[in-house]
Amino acid sequence: MALTSLDPITALVIVDLQRGIVGLPSVHPIEDVVARAGTLAAAFRRHRLPVVLVNVAGGAPGRTERPRLGGPFPDGWTDLIPELDPQPSDITVTKRTWGAFASTDLESQLRQRGVTQVVIAGVATGTGVESTARQAYEAGFNVTLVTDAMTDPRTEAHDYSIANVFPRLGESGSTQAIIELLATRSAQA
Length: 189
Known about the structure:
Elements: E1 10-15, H1 19-22, H2 30-46, E2 51-56, E3 91-95, H3 106-112, E4 117-123, H4 125-138, E5 142-151, H5 155-169, E6 171-173, H6 175-188
Parallel strand pairs: 1-2, 1-4, 2-3, 4-5, 5-6
Organism: Bradyrhizobium campsiandrae
Protein name: Isochorismatase family protein
Keywords: Hydrolase
């Protein structure tokens, strides 16, 4: 679905752009994803809209067929990257599952601020971003995905999420399209 509008109180949610993850391989240059996420964060702050910075510090319990990272993360692994320019007004969420809503207070924090829509960017497209988008959709938020401000270590996961999952959860658009909608919205207010 093409990007059509932003609700009056829309929050930006940036998933897992943290020191331990941005150094991992990805299908799109992480520097571009980081730059676009930083641009979006600055634009949302300029328009006095909530910015949510999410990091991951563990994994959900349970058996899986694939091995998980074991033991404690190295020092600094969960630190949000400085390019996001974290501000005291930002909402920060530390998750231990793929999605940012499960087992956190993110939904209540957004509801307290009157948020009805979330714009999501970050890594990894097929896990953290997609899970956060699914959970936001299931919680009743309008969902927008910034496809040029996300990446994944696996091409097939990134492409599948964008082509098959995201259209069922909400609208998708570019960083520039989001910034233009923010400007149009402000001009009309």
